[in-house]
Specification:
single chain; 446 residues; alpha/beta; 3-methyladenine DNA Glycosylase II, Chain A, domain 3; 3 domains; 17 helices; 17 strands; 40% helix; globular
Length: 446
């Protein structure tokens, strides 16, 4: 049972030392009750109180970590329903499913291609998190061979999917020292699957069509000594999935412990890549911990991973690059100087367009607290003074002989003020959009 803020306060040292970052112990206890701080932030809480407060301070959704040979993926530990309340903590793992009924060559080719997939997106590496191997054949030897084929082609974490404990156990023999997720515990086989999960020290996937059935199964399985579980609500259709996933998250956040686990969604059941991408996007937003795709194609995977990055960034903290002067295409002293802000998407839009054109340039990235050009200008974070400060700070004048600086077209209004700040420089106004920069540089700066 979760404790109230007053109950927590009675167990704290009540020194009001402020070392936790709050003015009083009461304020800290209220935040702790709301799951907005960690108990460890209080340096003087006693061991006895720690034990009593364990349930209240523990995240409502259990942390589950899958480990492969040289990588791992962690999900859970979420404490809010909406990301504007407090950012989501662990991005959902995105995995590709293969079936043991596929030819070995087909499995190997699919796994190798998916493992090698990596794309740079505004300074972040987009890549997949692992694979799900399904025991579609129901045969232990066939399944073991498929798991072995996947493992020989990739060291990423695995999920073993099947409802026959003996078949899943055979597949586990290939994964010595790893920590996969074994899927398939249901109302018929839960005892044997729980025994296997406990013996192998793996997380256990539990599936049912209703919340009541899921809660009943998790309580039984926990009684068998298995603490790490992943929930698979098997409702049919997107509407049912949305309702079940949202209800699970809501109940978990209300400290209903039988549903306090991350969930998994199999998006490949859509039957075609377009619907699969839609189901995957839906699952990432609401609120799957693992999303399993059947199709591996760069365009489908890219769209899913980009969405995941956008959902799981901190909405109160824009993605930023380091303010500095960047050299694009090995610029010479007589090449132009471009200016932009340190919002990652803005920086990479400008840098990629110029780099792709093959034209050399110096790119001055001013500190605008991670805001885009127009937003930063409106907020007073990107003005003539800040641009001039960046130019001087990074010694741009010492690097170039042709002192021409190009402003983004959206802030043309700053040109007069910047001339006053940088009287030795010629101020030009560039295009509004990054895609127009190469044409502008060829026509106006040559």
């Amino acid at each position: 049972m979760a404790l109230s803020g007053i109950q927590i306060y009675k167990m704290l040292p009540q020194t009001n030392c402020k070392e936790c970052g709050f003015p009083t112990c009461l304020a800290f206890s209220m935040k702790l009750a709301a799951k907005q701080v960690e108990l460890g932030d209080c340096p003087y809480v006693t061991d006895e109180s720690k034990q009593q407060l364990a349930e209240s301070s523990a995240p409502p959704i259990r942390l589950i970590t899958l480990k492969g040979k040289d990588a791992e993926v962690a999900v859970g530990n979420e404490v809010v329903l909406f990301r504007h309340e407090k950012k989501f903590v662990n991005r959902p793992g995105v995995l590709i499913r293969v079936a043991d009924t596929d030819e070995k060559e087909t499995i190997t080719a699919k796994v190798e291609a998916a493992t090698a997939y990596i794309v740079d997106y505004v300074g972040l590496d987009l890549k997949l998190d692992g694979f799900a191997v399904e025991a579609a054949s129901g045969d232990a030897a066939t399944f073991t061979a498929a798991v072995d084929a996947v493992r020989k082609s990739s060291n990423l974490p695995l999920i073993l999917v099947g409802n026959d404990p003996a078949v899943i156990e055979a597949g586990l023999t290939v994964l010595d020292g790893e920590k996969p997720l074994i899927m398939g515990a249901n109302a018929e086989n839960w005892e044997a699957m729980a025994d296997l999960a406990k013996k192998a020290e793996t997380a256990l996937g539990v599936e049912a069509g209703t919340l009541e059935e899921l809660a009943e199964l998790t309580e039984k399985i926990q009684g068998k000594g298995v603490e790490d579980m992943v929930l698979h609500p098997t409702g049919q259709g997107m509407s049912s999935s949305l309702a079940l996933q949202t209800q699970i998250r809501r109940l978990a956040l209300k400290n209903f412990r039988p549903l306090g686990y991350p969930t998994i969604a199999f998006a490949g059941s859509g039957g075609n890549p377009a619907k699969e991408a839609t189901l995957a996007a839906h699952s990432i937003c609401k609120y799957a911990g693992f999303v399993v795709l059947d199709t591996f194609s760069p365009e489908l995977v890219y769209s899913v991973l980009v969405l995941r990055e956008n959902i799981f960034t901190d909405p109160q903290k824009p993605i930023q690059v380091l303010p500095a002067i960047y050299e694009i295409n090995d610029p010479k002293p007589d090449d132009p100087v471009l200016v932009t802000t340190n919002f990652s998407i803005t920086y990479f839009s400008v840098a990629n367009e110029v780099e792709g054109s093959g034209l050399p340039a110096w790119l001055v990235v001013a500190d605008a607290e991670g805001m885009s050009v127009l937003t930063a200008w409106a907020a007073g974070k990107f003005d003539a003074e800040s641009i001039a400060k960046a130019v001087k700070q990074f010694g741009v004048g010492d690097k170039v002989s042709k002192k021409v600086i190009v402003l983004p077209g959206h802030v043309a209004v700053l040109s007069g003020e910047l001339e006053e700040e940088l009287p030795d420089w010629e101020i030009r106004v560039g295009p509004r959009e990054a895609v127009d920069l190469p044409g502008y540089m060829k026509s106006a700066l040559t």
